[in-house]
Fold this sequence. Notes:
Two copies of one chain form a homodimer.
Chain A: H1 8-12, H2 17-25, E1 32-33, H3 46-64, H4 74-84, E2 93-96, H5 99-110, E3 116-121, H6 125-134, E4 137-144, E5 147-148, H7 150-162, E6 167-172, H8 186-199, E7 203-207, H9 222-229, E8 236-241, E9 253-256, H10 259-272, H11 278-289, H12 293-318, E10 324-325, E11 333-337, H13 344-353, E12 356-357, E13 359-360, E14 374-378, H14 384-399
Parallel strand pairs in A: 1-12, 3-4, 3-6, 6-7, 7-8
Antiparallel strand pairs in A: 2-9, 4-5, 8-9, 10-11, 11-14, 13-14
Amino acid sequence: MISEKLSQATRNMQSSMIRELVSSTRDIPGLISFAGGFPSPKTFPRETLGRLYANVIENEGECVLQYGASEGDNMLKEELLKWEGYSLPHEQILITAGATNAIFYMTLALVEKGDVIICEAPSFLGSLVAFDAVGAELIPVDLDREGIDLAGLQSAVQKVTAEGKKIKFIYTIPDFHNPSGITMSYQRRRDLVKYALSMQIPILEDNPYSRLRFSGTALPTLFRIAHDEFQNTEIVTEIVSFSKILGPGMRLAFAKGSPILIERMCSWQQKINIAPDNISQRVAARFLAEGHMGPHLEKICSFYAPYLEAMLTAMSRYLPPYVQYTKPEGGIFTWVWLPEDMSADELFERAKAEKISFIPGSKFYPVGKEKFNCLRLNFTFSTPEQIEQGIKSLGKLISDFYA
Amino acid sequence: MISEKLSQATRNMQSSMIRELVSSTRDIPGLISFAGGFPSPKTFPRETLGRLYANVIENEGECVLQYGASEGDNMLKEELLKWEGYSLPHEQILITAGATNAIFYMTLALVEKGDVIICEAPSFLGSLVAFDAVGAELIPVDLDREGIDLAGLQSAVQKVTAEGKKIKFIYTIPDFHNPSGITMSYQRRRDLVKYALSMQIPILEDNPYSRLRFSGTALPTLFRIAHDEFQNTEIVTEIVSFSKILGPGMRLAFAKGSPILIERMCSWQQKINIAPDNISQRVAARFLAEGHMGPHLEKICSFYAPYLEAMLTAMSRYLPPYVQYTKPEGGIFTWVWLPEDMSADELFERAKAEKISFIPGSKFYPVGKEKFNCLRLNFTFSTPEQIEQGIKSLGKLISDFYA
Lengths: 403, 403
């Protein structure tokens, strides 16, 4: 009975294929997984968090166990502003139950069925299926080694505009991009912000990974460039997640952007979640206030650096020379380009038989616009030893592909 | 710039007027408030929760700080089934970030712009604005002393169906109804479930208050009646909130219902929140597993009982005889009917001048279908002494209304 009553959007809704792929390999004993996007549980600051949760409930329980403001905890906002070094009004910040949550609110606030969101190709599947569920048409623009291809972006904008469609925003992950591992160059960032300003197209900057930099020099976020160099705090909405730096179980992220947009996103939050978890918010505020974030981030980065090194060393040693891949300085993913006629979806099945898993690249493109000769490798879940062994086997599978 | 890009639903979105009313009186010193719907912070089991949060992070941190399942924590589901005494498959339960969250997912799963939701009049404003934001047309059906008026319901269903509109569900709060304080009679419950089954119209049973019964005999929920008497677990989706029995800051609720609907609600949860807060979920599971819930509920009920008594005593003593009101045996609200030509919106302004606040009843009706001679009184926020004093003043204001 209920099946006949489902809304159109619900009937057509795509599921996250990644989830199904991951669960199709979950029960393989001895599996070496490069598939997930989970942080290592060893990086969770359990001792500090355990103490903070207990303290916050003991000392501030009457407040944090009560309903909180839909806008988020003001104490956390203060600490976030100090941490990031901005002096913005609280009206330009919204705390949400994770980054996906903030992305969904922004999409609901702006997108009408048939409106266009320009995304990078490849891009984060979780966002693509959410955009799709709200009714957006996704227009992918290729990435090059410096990030989103600006000429491609401009011609996409022209084409879509000529068709009379409305572009609601550009969705980008400039730092340690998921899934490609690419970090947008400074020049590309500046040019992108300048172009967006000239065309008045909002940017959604998804930033889950920028603090996970193990080497090299950090680049300013798009929000920072708009703020510092163009005195604009409205064209870019930056969404920063705590999932990779504290723990995804806490469901915490924050968005900074135009006060009008933030207010409307907050209105959706009021209807959908009422408010984010008050306890986690206050714990994160105390974590920042007590000065744990800096040392903790250094610790996580030192922890992950050998994982990345193991991955890059194994890739250079074991992957055939005709295979290309990105060499990130942080984050949690690398990306592999196979020869054009080689399908990573097919490779996935062969790898599964060898107890190795990854995500075929095709899953990171809008439906109907897939590329098949690519794959994503996560390097923060398996141990460095497993990484070496897994990439060795994967190299052999690729070499044997045509056999 | 961003204003022009907002989606239609976002432009038209109603805000919760209650929030604005509450904030219009927030800074009045010495205010006696009957306005909010907050539980008393004195009922939060802080000591137990503080210990459980610390333990859960210490002993299960690697698990609870990680991403959780979109369906919710299986351990919590087990405990919920034991607590409520059901043997349902986990596929019929979804854990969410509060009841509003579950209500929103169910609405997204079923409602298309123009579809009808039948609601009680008056009803919980938070749900009405969420239904409206998804594009539902709200058809209100009056309440009598036994709950939703079945003849009214039947004629509403006939009328709407004749107009060719689709009814997606009936929204009801059978226990200690918000805002009216009415508890649906057993006979009415049974008749409602039977009618819904005969017409195949789903019911959304919103249950935040049924465990807050201070006297009298508990009645089976609609879900229970459908389950026990009609062997049906699909027609009713029951949503139980932890906000009034543990603490709203934790953002926890759960829905039970049709596996198809629960699966689709879970798909929306995956796109909107990924998963509920893992830590709060496990803490709630341990709270139940360690047997705290029973004694805790007894404690809350004994705590609130004198508040309700103070309210009913003051109402019988100080309100003019031509004023009618409900006499609930639990929950957190009572409801007052003024003479037909007396506006509670006007009374609100006069009461504010006397440092008393409540919510005018008109705020609990769909836009354009308001009744103005009614008001909601919360009795769990102000002390029994304040309740006596506040109702005395309110009685005088009502008596003086025509002066």
